[in-house]
Amino acid sequence: MTTSPSPLNRGRTRLLAAAASIAIAGAIGLGAVTSGTGPVMADAVRVTAPQAPGFADVVEKVSPAVISVRVKAKIEPASDTGGSMQMPGFDDLPDDHPMKRFFKEFRGFGDQGQDRKRHNRRNSGPRPVAQGSGFFISEDGYLVTNNHVVNDGSEFTVVMDDGRELDAKLVGTDPRTDLAVLKVDADSTSKFTYVDFADDSKVRVGDWVVAVGNPFGLGGTVTAGIVSARGRDIGAGPYDDFLQIDAAVNRGNSGGPAFNLNGEVVGINTAIFSPSGGNVGIAFAIPASTAKEIVQDLIKDGSVQRGWLGVEIQPVTPEVADSLGIKKDTGVLVSNAQDDSPAKAAGLTAGDVITGVDGKDVSSPKELARMIGNIAPGKSVEVTVLRDGNSKDFTVKLGELPGNDKLASAGSDQDEATPEQSDSETLADLGLTVTPADDGKGLVVTDVEPGSDAAERGLQAGDVITSVNTNEVSGASDVAKAIDEAAKAGRKAVLVQITRETASRFVTLPVDKG
Are 179 and 286 in contact (CB under 8 A)? Predict the structure, then answer.
């Protein structure tokens, strides 16, 4: 027989058990405090999220193909009056001309003017004058850079990604697209890492690009950005069709490649836009499609041969379209067919509107220049024009585009028109006073009314009006007749062809107000 504990004993048992529990907890707590392991801490914050793609893999693969270019030239001693060498073709421009500033400040490795002055104080041997970037396009040593990097150079050194310095020779240049090809001789045991051009027709605004080059002579430098625009015209030449990128590009990046994420060259960094000369996120690259064609020609022939039509052209603005009575502002207006040119031989004349070449539409002067320039000299093309409201086709056998010196001198033997005050007549509707030209062809402007539409459009005394609405004029009555016909046809303006010195162009003048 067992007996149950008394209530008093049961209470004591509970107190002892509680005391034991407190002692155990205290011992555990004391151990946590006095042991050397420290307090228990929560895990550090870590976020698992999709990771943006990096560029390290691309850079690792392409960097051996990207090089720095050092250029030396024989510097002639400066004249006693001082001054620094200028970019060829820009010597005659005013110092504040935007194109002169553009090339002087933003292209190549900088002005180099002060460096050249210091060189001139010593001797006229080969001296460093520029440095830029470039890249190999073949394993046997052909490489691409900018023409303005190698321009005037007599010696060229290529600095490899691993620091090796190799001599290079100039294969050919194309100033119109600012491209140049150099060649480094490879021995039988060594081949160069090279890259290929991308299909830039697939490049979209917003695509990633990686620029690799030699900014400020620092050596291999990588920047990244996106394609921010296509088809940019920066006024550098008739073949402007630049990619605009926002990757950091600076002086010395000229001639360096802009890669896509597949390691293909989408463009060649050529120019930057900046008020300070440093990077502001607007850079321009020659598209791969343009570069690929030019580079092939340079490797093959050392130069580029382009087709030549031989016309002076200007855009067809809405005002020009209205004055000609055509429905849409398309095509390009021929302001002059040059003497002894393929266009003149085929029958094209001032006032024609070229709308197509070989069945392809033409929408701007730049587009026509590129289309004709991409066709080999000697080939015949079908040129479609609008004349007197009707479409006509002309077969033109293209010539070879003359050099800049020949183009500049074309027509230089023409006499400058001199205003005559006798037999002057006033064209009040146009704000002009004119007199017949001595040879009976056209009207010489003797006075332009200040504030008139003619003055606003740039007409000045000495200009010669040769036609109105494509009809030749020899007296004020011819102009009045053309204005009346335009008014009856419901047109708001007349198309006036003027010549100034050796240049010809069209302007539109309103006829609905005096």
Answer: yes
Q: What percentage of the chain has pLDDT greater than the value 90?
A: 36
The predicted pLDDT at position 94 comes to 56
Q: What is the pTM of this model?
A: 0.65
The model's pLDDT over 271-306, given as tens digits with 9 standing for 90+, comes to 888 776 677 888 999 999 999 999 999 999 999 988
Q: Establish if 180 belongs to a structural domain.
A: yes
CA atoms of 210 and 259, how far apart (whole Å): 5
User: At which residue do the structure tokens 């691409």 appear?
Assistant: 144
Reported in sequence order, the residue ranges of 325-405 that DSSP labels E, i.e. its strands, are 332-337, 353-357, 360-361, 380-387, 390-397, 399-400
CATH number at 76 reads 2.40.10.120
Specify whether the CB–CB gap between 134 and 175 falls below 8 A: no
Separation CA 208–CA 317 (nearest Å): 36
State the amino acid at position 478 in one-letter form. D
Locate 111 and state its tokens.
Answer: 């002005």
List, by residue number, the catalytic residues: 148, 178, 254
* Closest-CA residue to 149 (of 178, 114, 115, 106): 178
Structure tokens at 241: 């069709």
Q: Is 261 inside any structural domain?
A: yes
Q: 428 exposed, middle or buried (CB, 10 Å; 0-12, 13-18, 19+)?
A: exposed
Name 284's Cβ contacts closer than 8 Å, sequence gap at least 6: 232, 234, 242, 243, 244, 245, 269, 270, 271, 272, 273
Provide Rg for the chain, Cα atoms. 36
Q: Taking the CB of residue 170, how many other CB atoms lie within 10 A of it?
A: 17
CA atoms within 13 A on the CB side of 63: 14
Residue 284 lies in a domain: yes
How many separate domains does the chain show? 3
**What's the pLDDT band for 454 if we cut at 50, 70, 90?**
confident
Residue 307 neighbours by CB under 8 Å, 6+ apart: 372, 373, 374, 375, 376, 377, 379, 381, 398, 399, 400, 401
Is residue 111 scored above 80 in pLDDT? no
Whether 325 and 398 map to the same domain: the answer is yes
Strand partners, 169: 183
Distance CA(397)–CA(377), nearest Å, equals 8
Q: Which of 267, 288, 304 is the last residue of a domain?
A: 304
